[in-house]
Amino acid sequence: MKPKNFDPEKTLDVIADTFARNGYEGTSLDVITKKTGLGKQSLYNAYGDKKALVMKTIQCFGRKSAAAKALHDPTLSGREKIESFFEAILAEAADHKNPGCLITNLLLEKGASDMDVWKAASARWNETRAALRFAIAAGVKDKSIHARLDPEILSYALMNLLNGLRVTVRASNDLEKIKKVVRVSLQSLL
Asked: Is 165 a domain residue?
């Protein structure tokens, strides 16, 4: 039975966090029921099986994050959008309770073994890359970014920076040094 205050969107956020923290294979329905307070039948009725759950979390993950909002902020120049995006990612990374990026984690864990998860996670990865590409194009137009590189290639370079940053944060506790690396990287790319 679903709790009276059941919020499907907030529940998906909890489930996404659980998958990001434990991985797909490490997240059982028992773990999800403990985290959400829902029974297994309620989960099945609301979302479907475990695979359907992860597919739904892929669709909602990160869309309301500070990083996503920064990339779509119409008050910022193209360069400011990208800088604010990376600042928000660093702020998330500084929070030791943050499980990391569901999309990156799923691409690494399931990318070679589950085509459905790979396609869905890749599509979301490419949405972020497209948002970066649009910010780059806006920056070239508003002259906050130099037009020396193709926005498509630069968007891939920024995604490499993002994914490398996520690994570096996990491997190092020196957030100040990582912030400097991001600043130097953005200065050289933009």
From this structure: yes
pLDDT along the chain (190 residues), means of 10: 70 92 92 92 89 92 88 96 96 83 90 91 95 96 89 95 89 88 94
At 138, is the secondary structure helix, strand, or coil?
A: helix
**Is 167 a domain residue?**
yes
Burial 69-98 (b: 16+ CB within 10 A, else e): ebbeeeebbbbbbbbbbbbbbbebbeeeee
Token pair of 21, please?
């923290």
C-alpha gyration radius of the chain: 18
Q: What is the pTM of this model?
A: 0.88
Q: Which amino acid, one-letter code, is at 172?
A: S
Distance, CA of 78 to CA of 134 (rounded, Å)? 8
Q: Please check whether residue 121 lies inside any domain of the structure.
A: yes
